Amino acid sequence: AAVHAKGVLLFLPPVRYDEEKFTKYDSKTKETHWTPEALKFGERLAMALAALAGIILRGRSVTPPPTWALESSFSTTEEEVLHSEASKLTKEITSLQLQRTTLEQRLEKAGSIRALLYEQGKPLERAIREALGVLGFSAVPFAGGDSEFDVIFEAPEGRCLGEVEGKDNKAINIDKFSQLERNLQEDFAREGVTAFAKGVLFGNAERLTPPSKRSEAFTAKCITAAKRVHVALVRTPDLFDPVRYLRSHTDVAYAKACREAILLADGEIVVFPQAPVSSASDVREGEADGAPTGDVTPK
Fold this sequence. Notes:
Blueprint: E1 2-4, E2 7-9, H1 19-22, E3 23-26, E4 31-34, H2 36-58, H3 77-110, H4 115-118, H5 121-135, E5 138-144, E6 147-155, E7 158-166, H6 175-189, E8 198-204, H7 220-229, E9 232-235, H8 240-248, H9 252-264, H10 279-289
Parallel strand pairs: 7-8, 8-9
Antiparallel strand pairs: 1-2, 3-4, 5-6, 6-7
Helix pairs in contact: 5-8
């Protein structure tokens, strides 16, 4: 050890161990785990390092306990009791860490619909399919042969084929229409398809700007083309409030109204019906009463 005015630098030899003795491969989970022997070794190593740290902090010239002195045959009754208590706390910590990880995963999923506000490409496509599922559609991507569609979605009210586009600081232009029209033709030509799907263009224009400060989502040419081929235009941020509401409220009639808004839009921007109540207003009402409301799922 090299001692300095403000601390101590310890030079430790590399830890070597028998991999066959200390590790075990689980073919079911395809993961490698430490064996009981390895865990015991780790505990002894941790105790030795803790002892070194204690000696350094005390500033006394004390011989660190050799490895053999840490064997159970030389332990005291008090050590065994404290070691048992420490092991229980370690298990509790591990359990709490797993619970925290699960909650973090749920938290991430709960806020996943925010991708409708700012994403593009594949992440935006996934968010749109999730949103359509909340509205009551069966929504899936399609890839087969030479065809690849961002999303095919259907419900009792009808069947749709959608294309997705996100722009950093521009409106959605006419470029996507040739692809959407081609996809509608290819879809109709597929075996088992007897009618043209409803074309839907999902656009997230000026995606890095707050929604309230964005200008027109689709160019004039884009809207003209939509009218010509009877395509519905959906601004993806417009999906956010309806989906947020439906994720915390069971409202079959409202979900149907949202589906119909898409299917009945004829060459125009879809206007979704206003949600009866938003999650944000639920929270405010609960705070005013001094307690959260019962049917609000935190986002």
